[in-house]
Amino acid sequence: MTDRFQVLKNAVPFNLLPDEVLMGVVDLLEEVKYTKDTTVYHQEVSKLRGVDIIAAGEYESFFYDSAQNKRLLEHHRTGYCYGGISVLLNRRKSLRTVIAKKGTVVYFLHRRDFRALCQAYDAFFHFFTTDYGKRMLNDEFAHFAKRPAAFEESYIASEQLYSRKIESLEYREIVACPPETPVYQVAQMMAEHKVSCSFVEEEPGKIIGFVTDITLRDNVVAKQADAQQPVKSFMDNPIVTINAQAYIYEAILLMFQTNTRYLLVEQNGQFKGFLSRNRLLSEQAQSPFMFIQSVKLALSLDELKGKWQKVPEIVTQLLSRGVNAEIVNQVITTVADTIALKVIQGVLDEMGTPPAKFVFMVLGSEGRKEQTLKTDQDNAIIYEDKANEQRELVREYFLKFADLISERLDKIGFSFCTGGLMAKNPKWTHSLSHWKRNYESWMQEIVPETVMNFSTFFDCRYLYGEKAIMDELQSFLNQELQKPMEQLYFHLAKNALQYEPPLTFFRNIRTFTVGSQEVFNIKKAMTPIVDLVRVYALQNRIFVTNTGERLAALKEKGIFTEKQYLELIQSYYYLMSVRLKKQANQITRDKAEPENYMDVRSLTKIEQVTIIEIFKIIKDFQAGIRLKFTNNLFG
């Protein structure tokens, strides 16, 4: 208490306040510690919850210009108050970027309390307005204060968001309790530690569930449940973990994909703390992840349609910042998943409780998490097997369920699949036993159609429902693939050789004419990579669906060398970047439907040369797969 009072007493302009007021302010302060080189605020991005008074260490504040140079660099030490001008005069947005140096400790004062002091004490308020006025006499300060660097050019976009790791964040300490703890004691413990989540620990290091403020509200208070009952009766699961070496964007995407609000951070086999979705999102004020959060809050089909129509703008921004196409794919897929989940939940609310457990899965590019802006519906439903007298009732429910979902997704902007590969088609909504027979017949009766079906449905990914059903199907497939399958791999390899890179005899890009343009189909040019990686993944029973993840797993198993891995993954995502950029421009600039035709004349010389080299790499890999699986080097 004495230390805090002394810091305030020596801090400008808090030293203008009476001692009795300072004593009251001391009780309102929250101590925050920062590790070395933590970026505390980003100019014109971070919204301040209040002001910081430095108790120990140092803040470095500055403006970033468009070339990422630090301008008007200042160092602030003990007794300095940061945030007053931003809270009062800049719509709560941090005017400058602030980095904390090693061993920095600040006392945080909430903006409501800070504003109350400003209203009660004129001298205190005028200190900040006067300081701002003096600073605005400096032409360079005025330039940046009036014209902040655009977010697209800001440091957070190019450096912080996509290159910063989880380990750089401050984790919340894990508050845990045994499964038999009465729920009222858990609530007391959460209040005491000021956390919104308590974990349930069966034994040291073995966490089996968690309880949140929302859990207590919805499952205990709202239902007037007995608060003496053990917490295991109310806990949520599953537990979702992430390694401390993962990137921040991966953590946020994982939270959206698993629909969890909390992540346990793991390092060297031990839990180091946890992160909340609100905490992560608050640091990404204008990032795509806040947009995804807004999709989750949408209330109508029209609103969801409007959100989907904004995705091309986000794609353009990300690509212009140099963000890897793999991340852009994940952002698109996460938005699409979020919209689909909203639609599914809305249909369930209307139709009532399903008569059987089920899984709604996505296929094709969405199943691989490689969606582009030219996309249609690829999905299917698996429901649990029921007794004979219930089968028709169950099937009738899920066919209607699938029909409503597909119709609504179509209205939002996800058009019907021209090949009919969607749950709306009765062929792709069936029981688990029927789906097992599907896979079995595809593997045994090898014709072009069954090979195509098998390829598409091997790229299936869980989206909603009872995950155990999908796990059982995957276990069945794993067992089947351990049998001799030479014919299956032969035909899958032939399928992977169906599209050859469009190269002329003189190693130029082969084109065809569409209207007045000389074009090639970039989707078909990329397809061989997807197909050949899938064949190797199948042979090695690798069940991740994403092409990049499959490549990493194949490298891990020694199937591909480091050089081969880099050649394929860099080639694939380079082509994906070109494809996404073209589609985004067609939608945002030309107001046209996106397509996969690339006009060679729209490519720079460097892009043309790079794509030609990529096509050569693909041809070399196709030669390898031709020899390995078809025993014929020449086709």
Automatic annotation (TrEMBL):
<dbReference type="InterPro" id="IPR051257">
    <property type="entry name" value="Diverse_CBS-Domain"/>
</dbReference>
<dbReference type="Pfam" id="PF10335">
    <property type="entry name" value="DUF294_C"/>
</dbReference>
<protein>
    <submittedName>
        <fullName>CBS domain-containing protein</fullName>
    </submittedName>
</protein>
<feature type="domain" description="CBS">
    <location>
        <begin position="170"/>
        <end position="227"/>
    </location>
</feature>
<dbReference type="InterPro" id="IPR000644">
    <property type="entry name" value="CBS_dom"/>
</dbReference>
<feature type="domain" description="CBS">
    <location>
        <begin position="235"/>
        <end position="294"/>
    </location>
</feature>
<dbReference type="InterPro" id="IPR000595">
    <property type="entry name" value="cNMP-bd_dom"/>
</dbReference>
<dbReference type="Pfam" id="PF03445">
    <property type="entry name" value="DUF294"/>
</dbReference>
<dbReference type="InterPro" id="IPR046342">
    <property type="entry name" value="CBS_dom_sf"/>
</dbReference>
<dbReference type="GO" id="GO:0008773">
    <property type="term" value="F:[protein-PII] uridylyltransferase activity"/>
</dbReference>
<dbReference type="InterPro" id="IPR018490">
    <property type="entry name" value="cNMP-bd_dom_sf"/>
</dbReference>
<dbReference type="Pfam" id="PF00027">
    <property type="entry name" value="cNMP_binding"/>
</dbReference>
<feature type="domain" description="Cyclic nucleotide-binding">
    <location>
        <begin position="13"/>
        <end position="135"/>
    </location>
</feature>
<dbReference type="InterPro" id="IPR005105">
    <property type="entry name" value="GlnD_Uridyltrans_N"/>
</dbReference>
<dbReference type="InterPro" id="IPR018821">
    <property type="entry name" value="DUF294_put_nucleoTrafse_sb-bd"/>
</dbReference>
<keyword id="KW-0129">CBS domain</keyword>
<dbReference type="Pfam" id="PF00571">
    <property type="entry name" value="CBS"/>
</dbReference>
<dbReference type="InterPro" id="IPR014710">
    <property type="entry name" value="RmlC-like_jellyroll"/>
</dbReference>
